[in-house]
Amino acid sequence: MNERGFIEALRALATSPAARGLKDDAAVIEFGSETLILTHDTMVEGVHTLEGQDPADVAWKLVAVNLSDLAAKGAQPEGVLISHMLGDDDHRFIEGLRSILAKYDVPLLGGDTVRGEGRRVWGCTAIGRATHIPVPSRSGAEAGDAVYLGGPIGQALVGFEALRDGTPGDQAPYCRPLPQIDLGRDIAPHVTAMMDVSDGLLLDASRLAEASHVTLRLDSELISVLAPQERLDDAMRWGDDYVLLCTGPHGLDQHHALTRVGSVAAFKGDRLLVDGTPPTGDLGYTH
Amino acid sequence: MNERGFIEALRALATSPAARGLKDDAAVIEFGSETLILTHDTMVEGVHTLEGQDPADVAWKLVAVNLSDLAAKGAQPEGVLISHMLGDDDHRFIEGLRSILAKYDVPLLGGDTVRGEGRRVWGCTAIGRATHIPVPSRSGAEAGDAVYLGGPIGQALVGFEALRDGTPGDQAPYCRPLPQIDLGRDIAPHVTAMMDVSDGLLLDASRLAEASHVTLRLDSELISVLAPQERLDDAMRWGDDYVLLCTGPHGLDQHHALTRVGSVAAFKGDRLLVDGTPPTGDLGYTH
């Protein structure tokens, strides 16, 4: 059974309508008078982090990737549970955890610690409260909508290379991404579809297009202002930026910190077009 | 920083009153008109499982230990999120997951899959809805209460030895424990304190006593009817049985499937007395 087979088998078990998208989307359930958003991400040392990376940055990112999933639902974070494998430099993990929880004013609710060997594994479950009903999903984009990004892409790529190779460049966008909680909440009432760019713009845009049964037409000239010079193609295929990708009416960028990068068209055989052409090669990071 | 230091540092971060007991207790938060219970457990191959154990049993136990935490809160399970490290025999993991979700009628809401190397790691977050307010905690036991167990202990010990050594004996109590969801919900309105026995009766009873600032006086003759013959001492120090341990008024065992095993006294220097004497040695499994 390969990974895709496993995920398909899991999806077959997840018959609840709340389980919109195992692995790459948050669960949405009605709970009392409120709507609850739940998301879980697991990180493996050396797979989702660089070997030897500061555990403070690992802790930050572990929480950040989950908060970014909540941001894509326009949710207000209510708390996190952390799973931590004990190791060296645990005080650094605590320090990073303290920093991001303070930055986003999110309570630590609980979790588990385990002993292990070899590569360390960390998990985070985040819960949030929906601020707008219906909760934005990936599946609502409609022909005629504009496509927007909530921030720059490729910053994490530059930060990753700076950290890995010791080259100049700001490491922070890779080490300490900033989930767009406020933006997500502000635009939730206005978008037709929303997700965060975690695995690469092209890959995530194609996922949104597939969920919505539409074609996303991206314009590289519009995107270029959001990406590092001469790295546009890499930036579109690199993840870890955790900016919001959304669709909605034209003009949303007049009132919110959004940049228009394309438009939505009726599906005619291609999920994604960049300057009118389907992109080839790896569209992003699959893990 | 050792494990205790790490957990203390985590607790210092967990300033929310919802975070009653990181690692060994569930979080309780108000959510809309309901009260939400959240718990997370992580399992490491070869640490919390036997090497080479059937992944179907691993999946069962992963969910069961979390449902047992919900049972101790008298909570109705609302769903689980699963974190799974891909490996061989993933179809068996799916099969075990399917079995326990069907048995307890719990929806799979989401989760994550990762690739890794070496020992595999699994995580489960369970959410539940409180059925009785106040939600039972570990801290409400009072002098004069009776102490009860919700089922036998030492069955998991016999099952573990049967599995590890190929000796005769029912492996099911170790491989497929049965969290006492119905019992927990039934007795939640009547208990003064409740938890599940996951790490050994003596260890867990001492934790309940400490949280409640009382002394628990256990009676080995009363316990002996719940344990395998001639293994009473082992059974009291072995975990994995996932039966409920609670305190409350005398006579609760007349109306519920509980066995009285002792009484609660005012604290006078010992957390725990067995037949009047403080137990020595390892009280249970710390991990």
TrEMBL record, chains A, B:
Binding-site residues for ATP, renumbered to this chain: 111-112, 138, 198
Residues the entry annotates as binding Mg(2+) 4: 25, 39, 69
Name of the gene encoding the protein in the UniProt record: thiL
Binding site for Mg(2+) 1: 41, 112
Pathway involvement of the protein, from the record: Cofactor biosynthesis; thiamine diphosphate biosynthesis; thiamine diphosphate from thiamine phosphate: step 1/1
Descriptive protein name: Thiamine-monophosphate kinase
Domain PurM-like C-terminal span(s) in chain numbering: 142-231
Keywords: ATP-binding, Kinase, Magnesium, Metal-binding, Nucleotide-binding, Thiamine biosynthesis, Transferase
Presence of keyword Metal-binding: yes
EC number(s) given by UniProt: 2.7.4.16
One example GO MF annotation: thiamine-phosphate kinase activity
SUPFAM superfamilies from the UniProt entry: PurM C-terminal domain-like, PurM N-terminal domain-like
Similarity section: Belongs to the thiamine-monophosphate kinase family.
Electron transport found in the keyword field: no
Pfam families attached to this UniProt entry: AIRS, AIRS_C
Organism: Qipengyuania psychrotolerans
CDD domains, per database record: ThiL
Organism taxonomic ancestry: Bacteria, Pseudomonadati, Pseudomonadota, Alphaproteobacteria, Sphingomonadales
Further comment found in the protein's record: Reaction mechanism of ThiL seems to utilize a direct, inline transfer of the gamma-phosphate of ATP to TMP rather than a phosphorylated enzyme intermediate.
Positions of Mg(2+) 5 binding: 199
